[in-house]
Design brief:
The structure holds 2 protein chains of 2 kinds.
Chain A (H helix, E strand, L loop, with lengths): L11 E3 L11 E8 L7 H4 L7 E9 L5 H14 L4 E7 L5 H15 L7 E4 L5 H13 L6 E6 L3 E2 L8 E9 L13 E6 L4 H11 L3 E7 L10 H5 L1 H7 L4 E4 L4 H12 L8 E6 L3 H12 L5 E11 L5 E2 L4 E4 L7
Parallel strand pairs in A: 2-3, 2-5, 3-4, 5-6, 9-10, 9-12, 10-11, 12-13
Antiparallel strand pairs in A: 1-15, 6-15, 7-14, 8-13
Helix pairs in contact in A: 3-4, 4-9, 8-9
Chain B lengths: L1 E7 L3 H13 L5 E7 L5 H4 L1 H4 L4 E6 L1 H7 L2 H13 L3 E6 L9 H5 L3 E2 L4 H15 L4 H6 L22 H7 L5 H8 L4 E4 L6 H6 L3 H7 L5 H6 L4 E7 L11 H11 L5 H13 L6 H4 L2 H35 L10 H14 L10 H23 L16 H12 L7 E7 L6 H13 L3 E7 L25 E2 L7 H21 L7 H4 L10 H14 L9 H24 L11 H7 L4 H17 L12 H17 L11 H21 L8 E4 L11 H12 L3 E3 L17 E5 L4 H4 L11 E2 L1 H8 L4 H14 L11
Parallel strand pairs in B: 1-2, 1-3, 3-4, 4-5, 6-9, 6-10, 7-8, 8-9, 11-14
Antiparallel strand pairs in B: 11-13, 12-13
Helix pairs in contact in B: 9-12, 14-17, 14-19, 17-19, 17-21, 18-20, 24-25, 27-28, 29-33, 32-33
The chains are: A alpha/beta, B alpha/beta.
Chain lengths: 331, 794
């Protein structure tokens, strides 16, 4: 059965975050605490009357950060007025059991409620965790019940020379998103590029694919950022070739889904195993998830975790908050 | 880029923080902090460091200005900087209002006083903008499928599936090695990144063999003595279902019935993620893990059986469909018999009129069932169902027998499973392959792996793979250049590879040793070198016998050249000539026995030459200067790549800094040691201490460095142990020679000893103690009185 929901074609900018529907509170509000100030973006924009039955603040427990502690405190101060708030510690490298437990909790708290409403602020989640969470929600037929919020940074203190991260810690296939690999086919590496050239190169060097395409965001979040991805990924572009660059949207998951489908199901690339690595934006990652719901079976998602983030050149401030268009569909 | 941070001794803390922050931003690893003593003449004091520096950053505070000793001192300093082409950048850590020197205050500098982070950002932007293009980016212009450089194909994947081209480019390594590889016995091949493992495995596939041996079909190959059919598999992380250990734990909990809690889950996952070898005491003690391993083994075996079966069927069909000359003949009848027989082996009663397509559909369904099972193990409230067809360890044996019995050209041949990137299997998955190596009858497994990529030599039942019995000793593809015959073989291989590449591209001269020009005259006149040698020996209170000049030159000539060039830089500035690295012999050594490094060196040299309008294609030579330029860029690029190397896990940056630190210490030896200055090796005098917990970081660094051929463990043979040598050896590591140019070292490993304890090396790895330890070790090596030894090589 398909639940018909209102389709939103473009991301909707929110200056105030209200209840998803006006008749009652949201069932859940889920967000991540982070050293990046924009983790408080949607929380700071909550309408004074916003309510949710349950609030989950996910907090990564691997290392201490004064900024994160401060941000989470300010989130708690606001969210305790919203509903029953829980801080859920989550291990960055071992998220599966906790994410599974979160979804089990959601389901048991919903008690088979039809028309459940789950608002998730994905601004500072780790991309591969987000993909697992969405997969779990999909397995419980809850995709049509989620609303995704995303707050951009006010600016990335990027430089044309400095990456957002250094080195590579580990390259691994994302759990639940691999295994359907066909040994009779060659590999196509699909890199959704961001501002981390070393990470892209490390993935390329590790996977040694027969073919590779580079997906760059266009348009970027801000006009003046045009060309940055190309500059910061010069090395891999030289090796792969400019002809292998394709452009995908930066902010609209629905557009990204369509674009991925157009590129990857073309006759040129259909006969490969698709090894995809999301190094770009979170909305692009959502678009990737939507694409994979209907994708060819031999797609693998690979992730390269960086050794350390470049805190000196990273996101600053709180930018615009968007409600991301997200087709609701059941598995 | 080399940066020198000048500060007052009262501002050392700030200066050290600045240096640390610049290193963390990967601006450059060569940053030196030097404090001024009040009243000291600055330029004289830091003269040594200035000869190498590109920038001097002054930590400007009131303390600094009073240390400089006034305007006159500053004028003298800036004159000196100008003549040496060094940029001075003032960093204002105090408000400009409080800086009494009008000259310095007027300089364009960077404000660190109002906001340190903003100041740091601006400084970094400036330094990066000024820097010439990064070495990695320069090298990337040569590599890659769209480059027109003949040496751009440094990876096998750049050939795509152009088997004709692969065949043309392929050069056989030593005859004995290759014959062993082709034998109908399992074999394990070890090699570092770029050693040619994939190329060697691919050369055993029928598509490449047909082109190499100029045959039309498999029947003709058999007439030429090829009695095997190879299927090439590239193992990626994620090509099998159980790469992450979550499913293993889920199954372990389910099988043992033990209650699941997050803390236990995390603890067990930690153990598994740290697992480097099987068997392991840590995991054997855990019943959940043992149960999980058994379950994973069975599921992986099934999955692997089906995936190999599918691949084999598809390839056989492809071989029979190639026009105009199919590799094998496969009619409908054969296809039906094979499909039927395999279905029967799977316990399925097949219908009539079967073909490979039916088998593929069935196999896909079964793989899907396994995949769903694994997914459901991790999914909330899902019920994993075990509903696929089970196969056992003998399944593939039976399948291959069916195929060879029913296809004429394949009667009595052996099938080869050519498994590349073996290190991408988890240890438990590797036990399946080990079992096939030991027990398979109708197929043979040939495995290629990086060093240390074989995490187990056991089957699941605990039976070890015995090299020499179950299969021959492993073949190593990295060439040991300490061994004369290996070096000769390596050079022959390089020449053959280059010949093939240049032939494909239609170059007039195909002998690479003729294309690489060598020095016609010595870099420094012999008279000057000899005079320096005499001075060195006399200063060290050693005798100087003119009749032994050849022996002295052998030990000291290269070091003298480095020293003289350094002195020239001090006197005339940084833009003077660097040490030359050119010629086939030099490039051989720099490549350290790794083919890809050699191709990078030559490719970049060719890129430079053609950029300067040298027509190499028509027979002109690549000049010494162009080759030297390539050597420095390639050297820097390979150093810069270390932190991006995922195979060293999170040790990348530490290894990078470790190698840079070692380089600085060895450089000091080169510049000051009076008898054995050239040395690329370090000797750990107390290797038994590596097993201690406190040295686990050092141990990891050494293991990963060895695995990735960044360091080599020097194996002892009597052939090159000096006669006079009496003290115990310790454990010796030699730096990969490709780093020699960028680190300012000679590429000759020689026989000198740099003895370090674990404690000392550990301090070198710690950013707080690194500088002090570097100074200590450098001074020790500089002043070391070493015994004179007469037997050396390399």
């Amino acid at each position: 059965m398909v639940i018909v929901q209102k389709q939103i074609a473009d991301p909707l900018e929110l200056t105030v975050v209200e209840n998803w529907k006006t008749d009652r509170p949201d069932d859940f509000f889920i967000c991540w605490g982070s050293p990046e100030l924009r983790c408080t973006g949607s929380v700071n924009k909550l309408h004074s009357g916003y309510k949710a039955d349950h609030v989950f603040i996910l907090k990564y427990s691997n290392h201490e950060s004064k900024r994160r502690t401060k941000n989470i405190k300010s989130m708690i101060d606001r969210l305790e007025l919203v509903g029953n708030t829980s801080i859920i510690p989550i291990d960055e490298s071992k998220p599966m059991p906790i994410l599974k437990e979160i979804v089990e909790n959601i389901e048991s708290l919903l008690e088979n409620k039809k028309d459940a409403r789950i608002t998730i602020d994905i601004s500072t989640s780790i991309k591969w965790h987000l993909l697992i969470l969405l997969k779990f929600l999909n397995s419980r037929n809850l995709l049509s019940n989620i609303r995704l919020l995303y707050t951009e940074p006010e600016q990335y203190i990027t430089s044309l020379f400095q990456s957002l991260s250094f080195g590579i810690k580990e390259i691994f296939p994302i759990p639940l998103y691999y295994g359907n690999y066909d040994f009779s086919k060659n590999d196509l590496l699909v890199l959704i590029l961001g501002y981390e050239g070393s990470r892209a190169m490390a993935l390329y060097a590790d996977l040694d694919p027969a073919e590779c395409i580079l997906l760059i965001a266009d348009p970027p979040y801000k006009k003046e950022w045009k060309g940055r991805s190309e500059e910061l990924n010069k090395e891999i572009i030289n090796i792969i070739g400019k002809s292998k660059i394709k452009y995908i949207d930066s902010r609209n998951p629905l557009k990204v889904e369509l674009q991925l489908r157009k590129i990857l199901t073309s006759s040129k690339y259909k006969s490969y195993n698709h090894i995809i690595s999301p190094l770009g934006t979170k909305p692009q990652t959502i678009g990737l998830f939507l694409y994979l719901l209907k994708a060819l079976s031999n797609s693998i998602l690979i992730y390269g975790s960086p050794l350390r983030h470049n805190n000196l050149f990273y996101s600053k401030g709180i930018g615009r908050t968007w409600e991301l268009p997200f087709k609701r569909r059941n598995k | 880029m080399k940066i020198f941070v000048s500060c007052s001794n009262k501002d050392l803390e700030q200066a050290n923080k600045l240096a640390e922050d610049l290193k963390n931003q990967s601006v450059t690893p060569w940053i030196y902090v030097k404090d001024l003593r009040p009243g000291a003449m600055w330029l004289k004091q830091i003269d040594d460091a200035l000869s190498e520096a590109d920038y001097v950053l002054g930590v400007i505070t009131e303390n600094y200005i009073s240390s400089l000793g006034g305007i006159e001192a500053y004028i003298a300093i800036s004159d000196g900087l100008r003549t040496k082409n060094i940029r001075f950048l003032p960093l204002f850590f105090s408000s400009r209002d409080r800086i009494t020197s009008a000259i310095i205050k007027a300089l364009q500098g960077f404000d660190f006083f109002n906001n340190y982070d903003d100041g740091l950002r601006c400084l970094i932007e400036f330094l990066k903008k000024e820097e010439p293009e990064s070495a990695k980016i320069t090298l990337s212009k040569v590599e890659g499928p769209e480059s027109s450089n003949p040496f751009h194909r440094v990876r096998m994947e750049f050939f795509r599936d152009n088997y004709r081209l692969i065949a043309k480019a392929f050069a056989i390594p030593e005859k004995e090695k290759y014959e062993l590889l082709q034998e109908e016995r399992p074999i394990v091949i070890f090699g570092g990144r770029g050693s040619g493992k994939s190329m060697i495995l691919k050369s055993l596939t029928p598509q490449v063999l047909l082109h190499r041996l100029k045959c039309q079909n498999f029947g003709e190959l058999r007439k030429k003595g090829v009695n095997y059919l190879g299927f090439y598999f590239r193992i990626e992380k994620g090509s099998l279902l159980m790469y992450d250990y979550n499913s293993l734990l889920e199954m372990g909990f389910a099988q043992t019935g033990l209650p699941k809690n997050y803390e236990l889950y995390k603890r067990l996952l930690d153990k598994l993620n740290k697992l480097r070898k099987l068997p392991s005491k840590e995991t054997d003690e855990e019943p959940i893990l043992t149960a999980g391993f058994n379950a994973v083994w069975a599921i992986t075996l099934n999955e692997f059986n089906f995936k190999i079966l599918k691949m084999m069927i598809i390839k056989l069909k492809e071989f029979s469909n190639i026009t105009p000359n199919p590799i094998i003949t496969l009619g409908k009848t054969e296809e039906e018999i094979i499909s039927r027989s395999i279905f029967e082996k799977l316990g399925i009663q097949p219908k009539e009129g079967l073909c490979f397509k039916d088998l593929i559909v069935y196999v896909d369904q079964e793989i899907s069932k396994i995949s769903n099972y694994v997914q459901n193990l991790a999914t909330p409230y899902a019920i994993p169902e075990v509903n696929w067809c089970r196969t056992n360890i003998k399944f593939l044996d039976e399948v291959f027998k069916i195929v060879s019995t029913n296809i004429d050209e394949l009667k009595n041949i052996t099938f080869y499973l050519l498994l590349d990137e073996f290190e991408n299997f988890r240890p438990i998955q590797q036990t399946i392959i080990i079992e096939w190596i030991k027990t398979a009858q109708n197929f043979v497994v040939k495995v290629a792996s990086k060093f240390e990529g074989m995490f187990t030599n056991m089957t699941l039942q605990g039976q070890p793979l015995q090299f020499g019995q179950d299969c021959p000793q492993p073949i190593e593809l990295d060439y040991n250049l300490f061994d004369r015959s290996q070096k000769a073989n390596y050079q022959k291989l390089l020449k053959n590879i280059c010949y093939n590449i240049l032939d494909i591209e239609g170059y007039a001269e195909k002998d690479i040793s003729n294309i690489l020009e060598v020095l016609k005259e010595p870099e420094i006149p012999q008279k000057i070198i000899d005079e320096e040698i005499r001075k060195i020996r006399l200063n060290a209170n050693l005798d100087f016998d003119p009749n032994k000049i050849d022996s002295y030159r052998d030990k000291l000539k290269t070091a003298v050249i480095f020293r003289i060039l350094r002195q020239k830089r001090k006197n005339m500035g940084r833009k003077t000539k660097k040490k030359v690295f050119a010629g086939f012999e030099t490039y051989t050594y720099l490549s350290s026995g790794i083919v890809r490094i050699f191709l990078n060196l030559v490719g970049l040299a060719l890129y430079k030459a053609e950029g300067e309008r040298i027509n190499v294609k028509n027979g002109e030579k690549i000049t010494v200067e162009q080759q030297t330029w390539s050597a420095y860029i390639t050297s820097k690029a390979w150093l810069e790549k270390i932190p991006e190397n995922s195979d060293v896990m999170e040790q990348g940056e530490k290894i990078y800094h470790f190698i840079v630190a070692l380089g600085e210490i060895l450089n000091q030896r080169l510049l000051y040691h009076s008898t054995e200055p050239e040395c690329l090796a370090i000797t750990i005098v107390d290797p038994q201490n590596l097993t201690k917990d406190i040295n686990s970081g050092l141990r990891d660094i050494l293991v990963f460095s060895e695995k990735e051929s960044l360091l080599y463990k020097r194996k002892e043979t009597s052939a090159y142990k000096p006669k006079q040598f009496s003290s115990s050896r310790g454990r010796e590591y030699v730096l990969n020679r490709i780093y020699a140019p960028v680190l300012g070292l000679s590429y000759r490993a020689r026989w000198g000893r740099n003895r370090f304890s674990c404690n000392e090396l550990r301090k070198l790895l710690n950013s707080r103690t690194e500088e002090k330890m570097k100074k200590e070790l450098s001074n020790r090596l500089k002043n070391e009185k070493s015994e004179e030894i007469t037997l050396f090589d390399f």
